Amino acid sequence: MAAAAAAAALFFILWWMLQGDENPWIPAGLAASVVMLVAAAAREVVVRRAWTRHLLEENAHDRFDRPITRRATRPGSNQSRFSHGEALRALEMRSAEADANESLPEAHLKVFQLCEGFLGESAKILASPGLSPERRLKIRTRQERVNALQKHHLLTWARSSARSLTHEAQQRARLHEKIETANRALECIDLALKKYPEEEELNRSATAVRDFINSSRIAHWVELAQRASFKGRYRRAIDCYRDALFYLSRADRSADHEAATEHITREIELLRARMTTHKAVDSDPRASSEKEDRKSA
What we know:
Elements: H1 2-17, H2 25-57, H3 66-71, H4 78-99, H5 105-126, H6 133-171, H7 175-195, H8 200-230, H9 234-250, H10 255-283, H11 285-296
Helix pairs in contact: 1-2, 2-7, 4-5, 4-6, 5-6, 6-7, 7-8, 8-9, 9-10
């Protein structure tokens, strides 16, 4: 509703401002449509981020296996030991299935959630009174095993999801689609970093995705500048090149970025020289008369 109100206000304001032009409702309608499209894209990004968080957080505190837990009311009993061991074996089977045959990333996310439930149940058993030292040691050993599985599957999910989404972003034609898809990949990496912030692989992946987003923006503005220059709109081309320089300044310094900055700076200087030349030609009365003679001829 807010976007619709803003679009309507923009439409009427532009219509009023462009009353002297022919068909002023066309640019006003286009501007209002852009506002609605941006609002729809923003809503889609928010919904997808919320859904990704939901996938990680749902069932995080649920029990791993409720029928088994109900039977395991006495931590020191043989049935409790059997239930806990069976739960671990079932979890390891699910882990092996997720690792086999190039399963989808969601399978690794599901195993991660099951590990969360298993660790929660193990903590409850360890907090129970009367637990023998041997039993306590065995449960802690299993916890270490599940902790390793949990980390493995969360990192695998984040790595696979980010790789798939980044590849999808590279295939997109429009800039906003590239950035939206790449941001989804970055969201997966960030969620894993919250759990394991010390993982260098995740940090490198996040940096690579951010570099891709930045380079996509730079390429977009350079292309717009080249189009404007080809059409003789030198002022517009200079503005686009400046936008490209802005995103270059936000990127990490490297030899390629330095070379790109120098190239864009030279292009801006050439465009300014062309603008000066055109102004000099237009202000010269002899050149103007020659132009008129050529037109009349």
